[in-house]
Amino acid sequence: MHHSPKVTPNNHPHSIKAVFFDIDGTLVSFKTHTIPDSTEKALKELRQNGIKVITATGRSIGALESLRYLDFDGFVTFNGGYCITKESEVLLKEEINPSDIKQLLDYSLDQSLNFSLMYQNKVLVNEITPDIVRMHQHVGLPLPPLVDRNNIDFSDIMQTNVFISPEREKAFMENIMPNCTSSRWTPLFADVNPKNISKKVGLDAFCKHLSIDISETMSFGDGGNDITMLRHAGIGVAMGNASPHVKESADYITDDSDSDGILNALRYFGLL
To answer: Which among 237, 224, 233 has a CA at the least distance from the CA of 266?
Structure first.
């Protein structure tokens, strides 16, 4: 289950100053749609020990309202496209190239492709399908309003979720959204972000802000969009429920989110 971490003196756990957490499937259980008590306790103890606790998610900042009570020190959202501190200082903000969005809209008419447009403060969807309903139930969020094709603001789109199969994804990205990059944490859709954006970039933005080295960070994740930060952080921890290719990118594999995986790993590394 566990494989030994790459712990060398220069990334010894006691020098960890910030821990980054994916949300869906990592902090929040897919089974219960809540944060396990052991995880809440672990986050609280981390902060009491002077370690910064930061989200790193494909969600928008608005979709974090229900988690605000956990008192995070910062938020990497939209897979790194929008990074903001607890005090609302924006460290990084990068929107999708409008031409890519125009091509997505044209393509979706032609190919009947479903998608969502994620702005800083709202999400719109092209159509409400059973997949969309299921996905919002899956992550416990309300259904968004529909895109009005005659009245689209192209200026502030941070991310789009494109409901496309993994087989079609590569050609779609090259031809339709060439200024963007895609990652996924579900077979249902790909998260599409500006080309140079990833959770890794979000980690760097916070390291700079906190004046810490990347070796002093730890990250937890379970999905394809977590791979860049699992590889980049001083210690990358994959959840037990992560897919095999995600586990390969981690230094350590812990238990499932429902089986106290976060608490167990933080204890293993001596942070609690």
So the answer is: 237
146-197 pLDDT, tens digit per residue, is 999 999 999 899 999 999 999 999 999 999 999 999 998 888 889 999 999 9
Is-contact 13 235, C-beta < 8 A?
yes
- Cα angle value 67/71/76 (rounded, 5°): 70
- According to DSSP, the residues that pair with 192 across neighbouring strands are 160, 182
**pTM above threshold 0.85:** yes
Residues in Cβ contact with 83 at an 8 Å cutoff, skipping those fewer than 6 apart: 74, 75, 76, 77, 90, 91, 92, 93, 202, 205, 206
Instruction: Supply the Cα-derived Rg of the chain in whole angstroms.
Output: 18
**Residue 254, both tokens:** 């812990």
For the chain, the straight-line distance linking the first and the last C-alpha, in angstroms and rounded, comes to 21
- Please give the order of strands across the beta sheet that includes 90-93: 90-93, 82-85, 74-77, 52-56, 18-21, 217-221, 235-238, 252-253
- Separation CA 59–CA 78 (nearest Å): 5
Question: ∠ at Cα 183 (120, 143), nearest 5°?
Answer: 45
DSSP β-bridge partners for residue 257: none
CA triple 27-30-32, angle to 5 deg: 90
Identify the sign of the CA torsion 215, 2, 50, 43. Answer: positive
Q: Are 219 and 229 in contact (CB under 8 A)?
A: yes
